[in-house]
């Protein structure tokens, strides 16, 4: 994954997954950068237009790539619908995409997961959000001119995808996989998958900087929750938004046995899956 290590602890985030603001700023200054960096702002249009955005960013609002009609697995919008969004935004399959929001990256991470699922090879999450960027770098209200493309998606085969369905989750429970619930304490107490550990997705965020905590701190935090590389890990929340962020973080740290339960607890309860209640163990 391109990460440096020291005594078994990863000290840097993989830049092919998560990029720092200075990384992006440097590429904005390099007009001849190759491959082309395309910046995607996933906030609502009124925020993009009224508050401002990172220079060169195009707007693809969160609601536009999240489909509650279940066109694909979970709330994915469907490969053709997503490709149409990228085409209208002037994005080609060989572009480097950097996505951001203003909510610590949780909505942007969902964009990253969706793009990966539909075969975009190089899509990254901006470490931090719009507010973090705005502390050090310029923003703009100018909307870039883009030429539409003819984007052709290349969805992952089921065997390549990290997404797993209800039956695969049942099998993982029987195998003793580690289930990681990324929701809040009260949600976990109300109902959670058997044996799951609670890891609120926001624990990885530094409240002062609005960015991810240093990689070595993240490693220690994950280990404190029993989330280690030698375990098969299955992530879930309610509707697969919050686990998108945790999935991106784990991937950037080099965890490679991480499954993503797209249906999450919503589907699990609808299908009368077994649950436990009660607060997490101290």
Number of E strands? 12
**Beta-strand residue fraction:** 5-15%
Order of helices and strands: EEEHEHEHEHEHEHEHEHEHEH
From the helix content, strand content and strand pairing, which structural class follows?
A: alpha/beta
Provide the helix percentage.
25-40%
CATH class of the largest domain: Alpha Beta
Task: Pick out the low-confidence regions.
Answer: 1-10
At CATH's second level, what is the architecture of the largest domain? 3-Layer(aba) Sandwich
Q: Which topology of the largest domain does CATH recognise?
A: Oxidized Rhodanese, domain 1
Alpha plus pi helix count:
10
Domain Rhodanese: 33-142, 173-277
Keywords: Pyruvate, Repeat, Transferase
Organism: Halopiger aswanensis
InterPro entries: Rhodanese-like_dom (IPR001763), Rhodanese-like_dom_sf (IPR036873), Thiosulfate_sulfurtransferase (IPR051126), Thiosulphate_STrfase_CS (IPR001307)
Q: Can you describe this structure?
A:
GO terms for molecular function: thiosulfate-cyanide sulfurtransferase activity. This is Thiosulfate/3-mercaptopyruvate sulfurtransferase. It comes from Halopiger aswanensis. With 282 residues, the chain is an alpha/beta fold. The chain has 2 domains: 118 residues, Rhodanese-like domain (Oxidized Rhodanese, domain 1, 3-Layer(aba) Sandwich); 109 residues, Oxidized Rhodanese, domain 1. 30% of the residues lie in helices and 13% in strands. The protein is built from 10 helices and 12 strands. The strands form 3 sheets. The protein has a 5-stranded parallel beta sheet. β4, α2 and β5 form a beta-alpha-beta unit. α4 packs across α9. It is globular. It starts with a strand and ends in a 12-residue tail after the last helix. The N terminus is likely disordered.
